């Protein structure tokens, strides 16, 4: 069904600590503090929001913030109109109430997911949120302070920006309000606080990275000041992991805004952007994570000079923990080292996702997530930034320029290093420490993103840019080790999807260049068998495509009929038994390629009775298309399936001629 498609990443949701929303499920929460859905405290807590005491309102908001981290409690709050009751408290006369109320809504949006976010927007949460952000902006502009002094207005702003981020990620209506209300200026003001308040700047950078993606209306608000703010972050000399993440997010936003870049700044900005990604990927998480953990252990060792806390201090600390809302409490004494490790992995994952999108085809038909945009949208921008932007980042020459920058900064080599399995030492450190366990999945996710990145680079870059035949054979050997070195093929779906995509792209290049490859047919059949047990359709599609590429190559060689029989039987199994028509179609397409021509293919086809098998399959395949097609598959998929149906009829005619020879 054609060549493999390039993958493209849209922004996931993250909290201010750099943890994904899905990580809420991965973190252990004290179940004694949270009631279940049946005995929800929602009613009592919501009543306390109207209490005349600011302390009581703050306590209620902080309690709601903790309770909704258990997703089963969320319906009880929504049924009691929690959003409309919390909304006015965003403008409460008490800053502490504002912060905790915004934090409660932030947690509700994070733990409730897309549907809850949509519902919150429908309940007009954007009105008080917009008013709050406008109100805090003057304090962000005029308040100068040293890092060691806490600015309560910035704490409120941090919660508000995170809430805005979640809502804009999940709701097109929220994004529309963002554009029309001119909230970009507030986000940039928060971003510019990066020298004094890195957490606020990170929240703003995450939000900006989200709202700039595929947002043509926002592009018209771009000006040199906006681009200058992002470039100043990009060129910062700070080396802490939080600042590495900040610079990576700024790079992602600049990439999203590439069509707004003035012609004179395009080359310089592109180079700085790719240099930022390169510096991030240069860091070795396998070495740094054990070092950061050891630093945490050293810092938390008992000090002979530290006295015991008295009861009053203990109670005060407990109250402070309760009053500061968090999405997730990693621990009561969340250490900076864990925050740094999390920022490192988030930055590397984000860097790889940006590179994936850089290597994604500009043709919307090549990517199911891409939407066609008007060719004259950029002409609507009022300040003339888009005028004449056809020299560097226009669709016709985008790939060549971007690929050149990637090669100059050794990105392919750095991406390949990230495709390795996570460091055993780093994994052991995280496995043995409960608060660090959440990093294990993040380390694996970096590997998965690197494999997807490798797939896109293989699909869009020429072989010489990737190092030529020797380098491609080395990549093949590396992928072979990842997949086949253990006694069983790894079963993790995200890994299988990424690695089979990379293998498919690589084999297509190797076959076109007639380079010997190191995968044995038996290995690939084993991979196909493992893929048939995977629920992810793209994994099964990749597996049969890999068999098709290998088989069509072998069909041109002498003495390969027995191997072709094995491949043919494996493909017939999939075409006959897979429940998904797209997978069945890919298997049939692979069979057409393998047995299209050649003495070895003809011999193998006769030995496995391919003609009779396909004749038996033909009416079943046609009936499934007629019965399931229109309701279950997209128009594009139906078009491809109809073509395969026609090709199946023609291929059966061809085999009938072969049999008569």
TrEMBL record:
Residues 400-656 form the SYO1-like TPR repeats domain. InterPro entries: ARM-like, ARM-type_fold, Armadillo, SYO1-like, TPR_SYO1. Pfam families: TPR_SYO1 (PF25567). GO terms for molecular function: unfolded protein binding. SMART domains: ARM. GO terms for biological process: protein import into nucleus; ribosomal large subunit biogenesis. It comes from the Eukaryota. Residues 364-380 have a biased composition (Acidic residues). Belongs to the nuclear import and ribosome assembly adapter family. This is SYO1-like TPR repeats domain-containing protein. Residues 364-385 are annotated as: Disordered.
């Amino acid at each position: 069904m054609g060549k493999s498609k390039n993958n493209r990443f849209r922004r996931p949701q993250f909290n201010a600590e750099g943890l994904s929303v899905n990580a809420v499920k991965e973190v252990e929460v004290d179940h004694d503090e949270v009631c279940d859905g049946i005995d929800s405290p929602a009613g009592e807590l919501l009543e306390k929001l109207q209490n005349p005491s600011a302390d009581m309102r703050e306590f209620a908001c902080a309690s709601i913030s903790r309770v909704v981290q258990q997703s089963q409690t969320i319906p009880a709050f929504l049924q009691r109109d929690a959003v409309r009751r919390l909304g006015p408290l965003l403008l409460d006369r008490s800053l502490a109430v504002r912060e905790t109320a915004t934090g409660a809504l932030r947690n509700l949006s994070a733990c409730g997911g897309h549907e809850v976010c949509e519902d919150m927007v429908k309940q007009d949460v954007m009105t008080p949120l917009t008013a709050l952000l406008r109100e805090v902006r003057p304090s962000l502009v005029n308040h100068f302070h040293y890092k060691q002094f806490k600015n309560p207005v910035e704490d409120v702003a941090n919660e508000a920006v995170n809430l805005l981020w979640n809502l804009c990620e999940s709701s097109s209506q929220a994004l529309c309000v963002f554009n029309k209300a001119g909230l970009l200026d507030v986000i940039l003001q928060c971003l510019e606080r990066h020298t004094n308040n890195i957490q606020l700047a990170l929240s703003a950078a995450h939000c900006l990275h989200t709202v700039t993606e595929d947002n043509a209306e926002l592009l018209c608000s771009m000006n040199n000041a906006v681009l200058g703010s992002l470039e100043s972050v990009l060129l910062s000399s700070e080396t802490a992991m939080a600042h590495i993440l900040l610079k990576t997010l700024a790079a992602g936003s600049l990439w999203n805004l590439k069509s707004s870049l003035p012609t004179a700044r395009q080359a310089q900005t592109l180079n700085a952007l790719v240099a930022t990604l390169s510096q991030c990927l240069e860091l070795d998480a396998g070495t740094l994570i054990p070092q950061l953990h050891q630093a945490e252990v050293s810092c938390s060792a008992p000090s002979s000079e530290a006295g015991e806390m008295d009861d009053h201090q203990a109670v005060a600390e407990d109250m402070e923990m309760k009053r500061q809302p968090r999405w997730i409490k990693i621990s009561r004494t969340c250490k900076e080292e864990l925050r740094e490790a999390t920022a490192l992995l988030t930055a590397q994952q984000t860097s790889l996702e940006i590179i994936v999108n850089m290597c994604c085809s500009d043709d919307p038909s090549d990517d199911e997530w891409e939407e066609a945009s008007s060719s004259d949208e950029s002409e609507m921008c009022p300040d003339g930034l888009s005028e004449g932007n056809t020299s560097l980042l226009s669709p016709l020459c985008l790939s060549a320029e971007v690929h050149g920058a990637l090669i100059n900064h050794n990105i392919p080599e750095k991406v390949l290093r990230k495709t390795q399995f996570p460091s055993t030492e780093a994994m052991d450190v995280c496995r043995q420490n409960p608060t660090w366990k959440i990093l294990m999945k993040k380390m694996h996710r970096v590997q998965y993103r690197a494999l997807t990145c490798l797939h896109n680079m293989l699909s869009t870059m020429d072989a010489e840019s990737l190092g030529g035949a020797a380098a491609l054979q080395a990549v093949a050997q590396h992928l072979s080790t990842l997949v086949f070195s253990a006694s069983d093929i790894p079963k993790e779906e995200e890994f299988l999807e990424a690695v089979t995509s990379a293998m498919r792209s690589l084999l297509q290049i190797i076959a076109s260049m007639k380079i010997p490859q190191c995968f044995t047919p038996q290995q690939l059949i084993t991979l196909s068998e493992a893929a048939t047990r995977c629920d992810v359709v793209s994994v099964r599609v990749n597996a049969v495509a890999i068999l098709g590429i290998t088989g069509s190559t072998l069909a041109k060689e002498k003495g390969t009929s027995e191997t072709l029989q094995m491949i043919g039987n494996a493909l017939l199994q999939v075409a006959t038994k897979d429940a998904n028509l797209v997978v069945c179609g890919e298997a049939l397409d692979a069979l057409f390629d393998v047995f299209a021509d050649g003495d070895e293919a003809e011999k193998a086809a006769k030995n496995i009775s391919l003609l009779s098998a396909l004749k038996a399959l033909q009416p079943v395949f046609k009936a499934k298309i007629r019965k399931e097609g229109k309701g279950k598959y997209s128009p594009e998929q139906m078009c491809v399936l109809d073509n395969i149906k026609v090709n199946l009829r023609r291929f059966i005619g061809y085999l009938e001629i072969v049999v008569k020879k």
